[in-house]
Amino acid sequence: MKEFIEYILQFGHLNQQQIDLITNKATEIDLRKGEYFSEAGKIPKQVGFILEGVVRFCYYNNKGQEITHHFIDEFNFVSDQQNFEAQIVATDYIEAVTDCKLLVFSKKDWDDIGNTIVGWHDITGLILKNCLLKTIERRSPLVSEDATTRYLSFLDKFPNLANRIPLSYIASYLGITQQSLSRIRKNIR
Q1: Which of 32, 41, 103, 128 would bridge with 26, disulfide CB 3.0–4.6 Å?
Q2: Facing residues of 52 across strands?
Q3: What sections of the sequence does the record tag as coiled-coil (predicted)?
């Protein structure tokens, strides 16, 4: 919980009463590897903050291939924010890549916090902006670089993930085959 509060306080000031309200609305859950935090075809029910573990955002393309397009690790928010706020059906899956421990907020509790704490929407707006900037920063180089450079960039941006998640997910994220990724890894050792 301490990491969660420290994270939020980077984006705005909260008094102890507001912090207590937020922490009382949070529920800690465990998500096992392979379980979904949110599923395509369903309305997202919660916003989470990862205390331990890694999740990925993925979807299936028109050929039925699974495409990983984002990873989120410890001490970051995870949600299908746009669909959560609008309460519309998600198109992505958010899946636990490792066993995870999260703090979660239901839609009702998230809205209650926003309706009670003056300035909460400003704080969450800054958090969302920060998350989007990180995503763009991590994805932008992947568009124009060769596969080896993309993998090296992945290692730079996600130094703690390469040994924690399956190579198939990394290959999908990089837009290459698992065989290509294995060759690249062998060549850079």
Answers
A1: 103
A2: 101
A3: none
